[in-house]
Design brief:
Layout (H helix, E strand, L loop, with lengths): L3 H5 L1 H11 L3 E2 L9 E2 L1 H20 L3 E2 L5 E3 H4 L3 H7 L5 E5 L2 E9 L4 H11 L8 E10 L14 E12 L2 H21 L5 E4 L11 E8 L5 E11 L1 H6 L2 E3 L5 E3 L1 E7 L1 H10 L17 E5 L6 H14 L5 E3 L6 H10 L4 E5 L1 H6 L1 E6 L5 E5 L3 H25 L2 E3 L3 H10 L3 E6 L3 H11 L2 E6 L16 E6 L3
Parallel strand pairs: 3-7, 15-16, 15-17, 20-21
Antiparallel strand pairs: 1-2, 4-6, 5-6, 7-8, 8-14, 9-10, 10-11, 11-14, 12-13, 17-18, 18-19, 21-23, 22-23
Helix pairs in contact: 3-7
The chain binds zinc ion (ZN).
């Protein structure tokens, strides 16, 4: 497994693999909007399958709210509108008629959902209310757009919204959401760090924001998930109240949390190599591809064996590549598309009562006995997931550095990127100066006690923060 190009020419590698592995077609004639190829759409479907299962296990119900939000609702929460005002697309006309109230294409759905929460919630027994939806959202990005990473139409926005009868319950929900996202990224073998965003970088209208970031090969981090404690801010704005146990009206406590297409970008990137994608089995549209190796006069025998094998592997996502191509060409295609396992069946395998297997992650070639083949393949797929997860975590952790001061941090961030941790006093002006001096962003504070003085100003440190260049 070589990763030279993957590491040194990341942008080129990314654009090429997304197109050639048939994840997204970038030729749609609107900037920042892309088309899912059927193969890419299958990857998306399996990724969503994982998060749906995890959310529903914890009592979230799937729902669907409208795409259009009336301007008066959208503008109600002052900080929220301020956070989004320069990214919103507006619908201003119905046919030729100007609309009385402009309609926003949702950049996120708080202001679509919470007027309904006001109607739905009456008493403490209506809570906790836990819903989610998977929708497209729109943001007028002025920065350089990039498939799955910086989009004008986010096609895969999974947003969950909850309401609770107390601050403690909302805090508990934040912990549950963080746990769900950890399990989600673990299932996809994506490594992450969790930090609390600095106050100037929290979600507009939230009390605080906890964020998941992963690290890309060229040294920048990508935000892949956020969890917000909204406190009673939106409840006050939208008048969402309930009758508490004392019989009094009280504003509800809310949380929301989201993931997007960026999870799929990470899935493609963190496991990739110079040959293309390397998908974890849970997200792979094809978990194993069977390649018949035909020899003169043995074609029928091989085809019959392949058909039997496919039957026995029912329940796994198996594809038989029966194209009239040289095996080498087929290997190349499926390696590019990241199929975790290749199974070769030729006359010699049949004679020996085995199949030949080749792992995409390591390139390792071996044989599995034909008897008990399904268990054998399942075990191998589990091994692949485990080693992908371990490799990705090792790669990220090798690029996290704890630094005592900025003289140590600066060259690391400049030369190889990655994540740097320093002690920090917690002061906003000091934090912003730090970001500027290092030409980087504060990802946030982590759950670790500082040992020294603030790396920015030399005063007493209260937190350990993570810094990185970000997408
Ligand atoms: Zn300081």
């Amino acid at each position: 497994m070589t990763r030279e190009r993957w590491r040194s020419s990341f942008s080129e590698w990314y654009n090429e693999v997304i197109e050639r592995a048939q994840i997204l077609d970038v030729r749609y004639p609107v900037k920042g909007l892309y088309v899912w190829f059927p193969y890419g759409f299958q990857v998306r479907k399996h990724v969503l399958g994982v998060i749906r299962r995890l959310l529903e296990e914890k009592g979230h119900q799937e729902t669907l709210f409208p795409l259009l939000i009336p301007e008066d609702e959208f503008a109600k929460e002052a900080q929220h509108i301020k956070g989004f005002e320069d990214e919103v697309y507006w619908v201003t006309h119905g046919g030729l008629e100007p609309l009385n109230v402009k309609l926003a294409l949702r950049p996120t759905s708080e202001t679509a959902i919470y007027p309904m929460f006001k109607v739905w919630i009456r008493s403490h027994s209506d809570m906790p209310l836990k819903i989610y939806q998977v929708v497209n959202t729109f943001r007028y990005e002025t920065k350089h757009t990039r498939p799955l990473i910086r989009l004008r139409e986010i096609t895969t926005f999974k947003e969950a919204h909850t309401a609770h009868a107390s601050w403690e319950d909302a805090e508990g929900q934040v912990r549950e959401a963080v746990g769900i996202y950890k399990a989600f990224f673990d299932a996809l073998c994506i490594p992450y760090t969790v930090s609390r965003r600095p106050p100037w970088d929290k979600f507009p209208g939230a009390e605080y924001t906890t964020a998941f970031d992963t690290l890309f090969p060229e040294g920048r981090t990508l935000q892949i998930g956020t969890v917000h404690n909204l406190g009673q801010n939106f409840a006050r704005t939208f008048g969402i109240t309930f009758e508490n146990l004392k019989g009094e009206q009280e504003h509800v406590y809310q949380t929301c949390y989201g993931i997007s297409d960026r999870v799929i970008a990470s899935l493609l990137v963190v496991h990739g190599d110079d040959k293309g994608l390397c998908l974890p089995p849970v997200a792979a549209p094809i978990q194993a591809v069977i390649i018949p190796i035909w020899f003169k006069g043995k074609g029928d025998e091989v085809n019959q064996e392949v058909a039997r094998l496919k039957d026995e592997l029912a329940g796994l996502r198996i594809h038989v590549d029966g194209r009239e191509l040289r095996p080498g060409n087929k290997f190349y295609d499926w390696e590019l598309k990241g199929v975790p396992l290749r199974i070769e069946v030729g006359p010699k395998d049949i004679a020996a009562g085995q199949v030949t297997v080749v792992r995409r992650d390591t390139g390792e070639k071996g044989a599995l006995p034909r008897a008990g083949i399904k268990e054998g393949i399942e075990r191998l797929l589990d091994d692949i997931a485990t080693s992908l997860r371990e490799r990705a975590w090792k790669e990220m952790e090798s690029r996290i550095a704890k630094c005592a001061n900025l003289d140590e941090a600066a060259p690391i961030l400049k030369e190889r990127g990655g994540i740097v941790r320093v002690d920090w006093c917690g002061d906003e002006a000091c934090g912003k100066a730090l970001e500027e001096r290092l030409d980087t962003d504060i990802l946030g504070t982590i759950e670790e006690q500082p040992k020294g003085l603030c790396a920015g100003c030399g005063h007493e440190a209260k937190h350990v923060i993570q810094l990185a260049r970000t997408f």
